[in-house]
Each structure stands twice: as C-alpha cells, then as structure tokens.
Amino acid sequence: MFYSVIRFIARIVFLGLGLRIEGIDRIPSSGPVIIAPNHVSNWDPIVVGVALKRPVYFMAKVSLFKYRLSDYFCRKMNAFPVQKEYADRQAIRRALQILGEGKVLGIFPQGIRNRSGEAKAQSGMVLIALKSGAPIIPVGCIGTGHNLPCGWCRPFIVRIGTPISLQQYQGQRIGSAGMEKISEDIMNKINDLLVE
Predict the structure, then answer these.
(1) For residues 57 and 78, is the Cβ–Cβ distance under 8 A?
(2) Dihedral sign from CA coordinates of 182, 188, 190, 193
(3) Contacts of 86 (CB under 8 A, 6+ apart)
(4) Tens of pLDDT along the chain (196 residues)?
C-alpha cells in the first residue's frame, strides 16, 4: 500500500516534469525479471520505479539502512541492503527469493553512482541471472543527473531496452573472465540506450 501511494504521487510529479517512458512494452507483465539501469544519481531507483507498472525490488547500499527512518522508508519501498565490499550471500539469497516469486529485481550493474560511465559492471547481476534463469532488461536513465530532473529544459527519459536471455549459458561453468565479459556486454547495451 505504502509503495503504491508513493509511486502514484511520484508518477504525477515526474510526468508533470516531462518524464518520457520509452519501451515499456518490453517489460513482461508477469514472471521474474532483472532490471539493469545506469546509475548517475539517487533519483534513478525512484524514476525507474515510477516508469515501470510492476513493483521493483532494488538492491541498495547498506548505508541507506543505517538509521531507523531511512531503513523504514527503504524497506517500505521494496529495497533491501547489500554489502558492496564482498560477495553478500544474504543479499544474493534475497534476490533469488524475489525472482523465485516471479517479481522484478532492480540491480545497478556498476554498483555505484557513476556519471562518467567509466566504472566497470560488477558480475553479481550475471551470477543472479544465471542462477535464477531470469532475463536481464537494460534500462537507460537520461536526465536524472541534475539536481531536479526537469523535462522542461532537458531530456528526462527512462528508455527500456530489449530483454537479454542468458539461457545459452545454463548448465555451463563460467569463470570470472566469462562473467566479466557478459557484464561488460550488458553495460554496453545500457550505454547504447543513453545515446540521443
């Protein structure tokens, strides 16, 4: 209920600011999906959550859950904590549980906010996709790097790409180099969505 109310209000605000949503039909109406957006600001998870019709469960850095109020808000908004300094098995289990329930998981492939686009994609997203069998959908957030995203004077877009299936890798042993290569390919597809 809380998520739906906040999303409804945010949707009115962002659409009023000129938010355009492109490719929404590429999000399946049911079944497990991994959403993989670029990440340039704290607006990104909010804007992506507003753009999609289905609730999104985002992995979020553990520091956002440090204080009682922010912990309450993040959890009500379907976020759950992940430690970035090491392979967080508890977060991976939670991600797989979400996908196992046929829900939408949101992961920022680079793991950090990154305006330059130079940060490498982490392989955790690929690991979760391989374990769950869920497709990865690249998403480009354009215009969220400004203090207040505003489509009146700048592009303000959530652009959804074509789902990427990793089914061809099922049952194979993929080393760290292979995971990095797949992650890099997905990051390239996200970057392609950012081109005007």
Answers:
(1) yes
(2) negative
(3) none
(4) 899 999 999 999 999 989 999 999 999 999 999 999 999 888 899 999 999 999 999 999 999 999 999 999 999 999 999 987 777 899 999 999 999 999 999 999 987 776 655 557 788 899 999 999 999 999 999 988 877 666 666 889 999 999 999 988 877 888 888 888 999 999 999 999 998 7
